[in-house]
Design brief:
alpha+beta; Helix Hairpins; Heat Shock Protein 90; 3 domains; five-stranded mixed sheet; 7 helices; 9 strands; 57% helix
Length: 377
């Protein structure tokens, strides 16, 4: 922490209020001093040659005005000096007390911030009192703590799920190797089988790591490239990639790809379209259907991927966008790291768009992506 020097805010505010009070009091005292001189100077002069007795002293008539002026100013200075000191002292005391009361909520914010850690993010200020600037600061601090707690909770879940997902392929590889090495009669066929299992597990781990890196890069760095992109050819390419798998399972692919131009990262947007189409095929049922639609206009580029499949509960839809969430046993039956929709949400958010999912009547899921299109500003 960078060291700081000088008085605190309470002392500085007190000195400022005291200085202003002293300046105003001094100005008023000077104005009074000038006003007394002006008033005395306006007194009618007595005829010269006469003598006037003032407080037992004989004063010539022509010296009466200056004498009265000096005497009045002297009394004003004595009384004004006493009043000046009283006002300055009272202002300093009041400013010190009042600023202490005003700054007390800030001290509570500071004390709470010092007590916070990853294990105590549940604390909140919940500052009572009127709706003033300090209360707004406290409410903003509480809202920041809510976001931090949500981020820490998501990070914990993410790390735990990532560790679990990586442990599975590594455990498979180790088990296959240990079993094969423990078998003294293992032949070439057994070794080839073991190598195939290890290769598949390694591929799954690599896909998981690649997905984690892409998700982290998108969430932290945002967009590094912005180029003209059209979602229609990206959708056509994604359909060609899954065509063989879809045919082997008897899936019917339906495409309605109108031009949907926008500006963004072509590689990331290709990953969005590919992930949605691959998920629609992977989590489908044999003999089902997949529909991909793109459209543009009015400053918006829309991609909608829907498909048949196992029924999805309405309450489970929001959780599908969380990392490693696959929506139940039926959706984990095939390969997948559970990062597809998480990557989609991160990329769409980085492009300033929105993504939503809804269950399909009879089973399946429909995902709609809306992105700022050309001319959206």
């Amino acid at each position: 922490m960078r060291p700081r020097r000088g008085p605190g805010l309470r002392v500085r505010l007190t000195l400022l209020a005291t200085g202003l009070s002293a300046a105003v009091s001094g100005l008023l005292l000077w104005l009074g001093w000038m006003l007394v001189g002006s008033v005395i100077a306006a007194v009618p002069q007595l005829p010269p040659g006469r003598v006037v007795e003032v407080d037992g002293a004989r004063v010539a008539a022509q010296d009466l005005g200056p004498a009265l002026r000096d005497a009045a100013r002297e009394q004003l200075l004595v009384a004004g000096a006493v009043a000046f000191l009283l006002v300055v002292v009272a202002t300093a005391l009041l400013a010190f007390v009042i600023t202490g009361q005003v700054l007390r909520p800030l001290q509570e914010v500071t004390a709470t911030a010092r007590r916070l850690s990853a294990e105590s993010l549940g604390q909140r200020l919940q500052l009572p009192g009127p709706r003033d600037e300090v209360a707004e600061l406290a409410d903003t601090f509480d809202a920041m703590l809510d976001r931090l707690q949500a981020a820490f909770d998501a990070q914990r879940r993410f790390v735990a799920n990532a560790s679990h997902e990586l442990r599975t392929p590594l455990a498979v590889i180790r088990t296959e190797i240990d079993v094969t090495l423990a078998d003294p009669s293992a032949d070439a066929a057994e070794l080839r089988r073991m190598a195939g299992v290890a290769r598949d597990s390694t591929l799954r781990a690599q896909q998981l790591v690649d997905g984690l890196l892409l998700l982290a890069r998108t969430q932290s760095a945002g967009l590094l490239t912005r180029e003209p992109v059209d979602l229609a050819p990206l959708a056509a390419t994604a359909l060609r990639v899954v065509d063989a798998d879809a045919r082997s399972r008897g899936l019917r692919l339906v495409a309605s790809t109108a031009a949907a131009p926008l500006e963004g990262d072509p590689a990331l947007l290709e990953r969005v379209v590919g992930n949605l189409v691959e998920n629609a095929v992977r989590h489908n049922v044999d003999g089902g259907w997949v529909q991909v639609c793109t459209e543009g206009g009015t400053g918006t580029a829309v991609l909608r991927v829907s498909g048949s499949g196992e029924p999805v509960a309405e309450d489970d839809v929001a959780g599908l966008f969380e990392p490693f969430h696959r929506g139940g046993v039926a959706r984990t039956a095939r390969d997948g790291a559970g990062l597809g929709l998480s990557i989609v949400r991160a990329v769409v958010s980085a492009h300033g768009g929105t993504v939503a999912a809804e269950p399909v009547v009879g089973g399946g899921l429909a995902v709609t992506v809306e992105l700022p299109g050309v001319g959206s500003g």
